[in-house]
Structures are given as C-alpha cells and as structure tokens.
C-alpha cells in the first residue's frame, strides 16, 4: 500500500518546525510560539501550552522518555520544561504546567533532545555550542554538565542514540559530530565530513548490532554513516557508507530512521521519501509522496508509533501536521 | 484539446467529491474556478519581480536598489508555470555597490522579506551575491539562503525595523 494521508490537522497559524511523539501523544512547535499536545490516536487537541512563555518561535520539542515531561527550545534562546498536571488522577483532562525555564545559550536554541534513559537533556544553538544538562528527580532544576564548542558554526540539530550514551549534532559548518561521555565529562568522538552544505538533521539506526546514522543536508542529499572502530583514547572512525538515491531537488530538512530499518526524508521540495536497504549499504527508494504539504516546505518528518502501529508525521510551513499511513510489509515486493 | 477535455472532466468529477485532504477548519484561500480546473493564471515574469524589489531603499544611500543597480532585470531568473499548485522558483543575483559592503546581507534579507511577503507560497526564493562582487560571497550566500537564520532574523525587532524602513519606499 503506498503512502496514504490518514489525517491532516491545521494546528498552527505559522510554520510547524518540530514534532515529537511519545505514548501516542504528539507535541508540536511552531513559529506562532505555541506548543500543542495532541492525542494522535483520536486526532484530538488536548492542550495548548501557554504561548506567552516564549517570546519567539518554538523551534524544537522533545518528550522525556517514559514521562509526560516536555522540553521546548525557542529562538528566544531559552528552553522551557513542562509536565502534565494531575497525571496521577488518571482522568482525561490534560493540562501542561511549566516546571522550569533553562537559560544559558547566547541566542536561538535550534534543537533539544533527551537521552534514551531521560538522564540528560542536550540542546544546541546558533551560538555554535551543544550543552548537556542534568536535572534533579523532580525535573525542576537543571545543571549544565558540559558545553561542547567544537563546531565552527550554528548547531542545527541534536539527537541521541536509542540505547547508548552517544549524541550526534548537525551543523551549519557542514559536519556531524559524535559526542561521548568520557571521565565524567563529554568529548568529541568523531567528525563526519562529506556533506557540501549545512547538515539539517540526523538520526541513529535503531539497531543493537551495528552503529549507523543517517543525515539530511542543504546539499539535497541523504547519507548513511557507519561506525568502524574505536582505538583506545583515539577518535572513533566512521565512514560514509552510502549516499541515498538522489531524489530531492532542494534542501533536506529532516530525516528519520524507523525501528524496522526504513529511512524517511523530507524538505524544501515538499517531497516525503521512504528508502529501504536492499543490500548492505545499498539503498532503494520504496515510496515517495510529492507535495505532501501542498506547495509548502516540509520542516519535519518523523516515524511515530500510535497504538503499536507505525506511521509518519510531517509538519510544514502551512501550519499543518499530516499523518501518513504506510504499510512497511509491502516493500519487499515493490521496486525490486 | 481532446486530452485536455478529458483532464477537465476528471478534474470536474473530482470537484464534486468531498475533498479529503483538509479535514479541519480549512481556512485556505478560496480558489477561483479557473485554478481548480488546472488552468494556469499568468505566470510571474522577471519584470514583475524587478518591480517588486527595485524600489527598496538602500540602507545607507538615499537611493533605491534599482537606481544603484544593486538589482538588475538581467540578473533575475524565474521558473514559473503559473499553476497555483505547482512549485515555482525565483533566483535574484544582487550586485553590492562595493566589494566589502558589510550591508550586502542586510540588502539580501530585505529583498527576501519583500519577495516572501509579495509572492505566492509556491515560490522558492534564492538570493545570491553576483560572482566576484563581494569578498565573502559564499558566506553571504549561505546566510541569505538559510531558512532558519532568515526566520530568526525576521523575529528580531531591531532588524525588522531597519528592513521596514528599506521597504517603505515600495509600492
């Protein structure tokens, strides 16, 4: 079954920049400064966060794993932390209360991400740095435990590995950096060079047997990078294993690696593309959807899980969130 | 013509079915009939783009970008079929007045803001500094075409104030 639009929701008055999904709850961030919480299984708007908290666009939203704690990073250079109020009452009412405002970045926060165990929050900014934060039990106090400054330009995006304490950052300096914990501190483990333009986003493979990451860039390409080895006290060695079939004609703003191994990409040309690895290191396009937000740009594409079912969520400059059905089992007999 | 009629018929049939795409408050522009039927409006041409940006004021001279030949008709490229539901592209090459002009980025941003406000959503706008006209071409070009930086700049009140002043001479 090809990509099919399941639901189109006009949630924002301006660009949708970011989507995150956890426990079937979608959070979205927009230039209109608001954050919305949606029950994705019922397409129901549960709450709209107080939109006076951020003075500028909300660029990035992220749920802390196994909780109803949400981080929102804004162009106003702050990060807000929210929690569901009265969660223990188990009623249907939803209200997110503000827990904390984190300050530290000099200017626009571009991305926020929680580590797989929720222990760390990473943030990045136009100030060229990546910050790693640790919070108390309540999630009210945040302490910066490391400021990583090796990027030479804006850091556009951060993402954690699904199982390891490994962080990847993508930058306007055209590189991706991998960061690891070392001696109670954090250090640069590798620099991935190869894109010929800003790297807008990256996402790790959800595998326990190998370590790979995909990336999408302003150069209109999507690449897959593979960890090769780690000599003691040396930099990790990564290689660019594949450049995916060229299909985008403009900047790729978002990439997402599904649990069952598919990569999705979307960007300025309005296309949503799904790729599958036919042979190790050899990728094929298995499906694509043109104009998935009409003539508007697509800022984010993300594999999400709703009631055990995998779907794709996209957010565009038109203020819409689109949810797409796609049957992953159908790809084995397609385009072979 | 026969083929076109078949297409029209298909489109008409589609029109009679309830559109599936926008299920919520569809506050999209109400399309006129001609557009729904796939008949293109007049495509936008370079002259129209020129007319939109030539009257922008230079941030430091009492002259417009057209008068200073920072923008020139021959340096404007447009790819547009006129269809509202297809992408279109405009590329503007600017020639800053002096090679180390630190205001090149500001001028480029002013042009971008003007075009983003005036052109339909189908347009992708690329702004370049003309080859050889600026010391740090690549840097300026990268910045002018970085969507996120432009969006953030447009939320900077001070910068927006300067740009509003530059655009106040536009018709």
UniProtKB/TrEMBL annotation, chain A:
SUPFAM superfamilies: WD40 repeat-like. GO terms for biological process: iron-sulfur cluster assembly. Gene3D superfamilies: YVTN repeat-like/Quinoprotein amine dehydrogenase (2.130.10.10). Keywords: Cytoplasm, Nucleus, Repeat, WD repeat. It is found in: Cytoplasm; Nucleus. It holds the Pfam family WD40. WD repeats lie at residues 51-92, 102-134, 148-179, 192-235, 311-334. One of its GO terms (cellular component) is nucleus. PANTHER family: CYTOSOLIC IRON-SULFUR PROTEIN ASSEMBLY PROTEIN CIAO1-RELATED (PTHR19920:SF0), WD40 PROTEIN CIAO1 (PTHR19920). Belongs to the WD repeat CIA1 family. Essential component of the cytosolic iron-sulfur (Fe/S) protein assembly machinery. Required for the maturation of extramitochondrial Fe/S proteins. Interacts with NAR1. This is Probable cytosolic iron-sulfur protein assembly protein 1. It comes from Zygosaccharomyces rouxii (strain ATCC 2623 / CBS 732 / NBRC 1130 / NCYC 568 / NRRL Y-229).
């Amino acid at each position: 079954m090809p990509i099919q639009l399941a639901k189109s929701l006009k949630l924002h008055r301006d660009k949708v920049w970011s989507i995150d999904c956890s426990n079937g709850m979608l959070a979205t961030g927009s230039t209109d400064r608001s954050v919305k919480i949606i029950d994705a299984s019922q397409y129901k708007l549960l709450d709209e966060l107080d939109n006076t908290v951020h003075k500028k666009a909300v660029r990035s939203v992220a749920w802390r794993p196994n909780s109803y704690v949400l981080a929102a990073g804004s162009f106003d250079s702050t990060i807000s932390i929210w929690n569901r109020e009265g969660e223990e009452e188990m009623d249907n009412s939803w209200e997110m209360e503000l827990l904390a405002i984190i300050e530290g970045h000099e200017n626009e926060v571009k991305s926020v991400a929680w580590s797989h165990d929720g222990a760390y929050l990473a943030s990045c900014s136009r100030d060229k740095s990546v910050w790693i934060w640790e919070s108390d039990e309540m999630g009210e106090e945040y302490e910066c435990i490391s400021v990583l400054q090796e990027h030479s330009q804006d850091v556009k995006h951060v993402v954690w590995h699904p199982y390891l304490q490994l962080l990847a950052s993508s930058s306007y300096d055209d590189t991706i950096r991998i960061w690891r914990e070392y001696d109670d501190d954090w250090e640069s483990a590798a620099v991935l060079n190869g894109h010929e333009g800003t790297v807008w986003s990256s996402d790790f493979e959800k595998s326990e047997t190998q370590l790979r990451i995909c990336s999408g860039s302003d150069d209109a390409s999507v690449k897959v990078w593979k960890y090769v080895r780690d000599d003691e006290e040396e930099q990790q060695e990564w290689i660019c294993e594949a450049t995916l079939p060229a299909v985008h004609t403009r900047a790729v703003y978002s990439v997402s690696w599904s649990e069952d191994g598919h990569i999705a990409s979307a960007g300025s040309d309005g296309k949503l593309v799904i790729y599958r690895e036919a042979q190790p290191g050899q990728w094929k396009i298995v499906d694509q959807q043109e104009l998935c937000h009409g003539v508007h740009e697509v800022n984010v594409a993300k594999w999400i899980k709703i009631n055990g079912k995998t779907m794709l969520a996209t957010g565009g400059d038109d203020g819409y969130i689109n949810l797409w059905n796609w049957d992953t089992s159908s790809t084995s007999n397609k385009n072979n | 013509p026969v083929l076109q009629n078949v297409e029209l018929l298909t489109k008409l049939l589609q029109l009679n079915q309830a559109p599936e795409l926008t299920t919520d408050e569809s506050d999209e522009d109400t399309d006129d009939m001609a557009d729904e039927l796939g008949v293109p409006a007049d495509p936008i041409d370079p002259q129209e783009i020129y007319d939109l940006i030539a009257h922008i004021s230079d941030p430091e001279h009492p002259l417009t970008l057209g008068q200073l030949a920072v923008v020139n008709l021959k340096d404007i490229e447009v790819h547009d079929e006129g269809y509202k539901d297809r992408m279109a592209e405009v590329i503007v090459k600017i020639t800053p007045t002096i090679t180390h002009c630190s205001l090149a980025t500001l001028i480029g941003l002013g042009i971008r803001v003007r075009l983003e406000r005036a052109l339909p959503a189908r347009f992708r706008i690329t702004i370049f500094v003309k080859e050889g006209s600026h010391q740090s071409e690549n840097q300026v070009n990268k910045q002018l075409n970085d969507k996120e930086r432009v969006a953030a700049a447009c939320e900077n009140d001070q910068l927006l104030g300067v740009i509003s002043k530059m655009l106040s001479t536009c018709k």
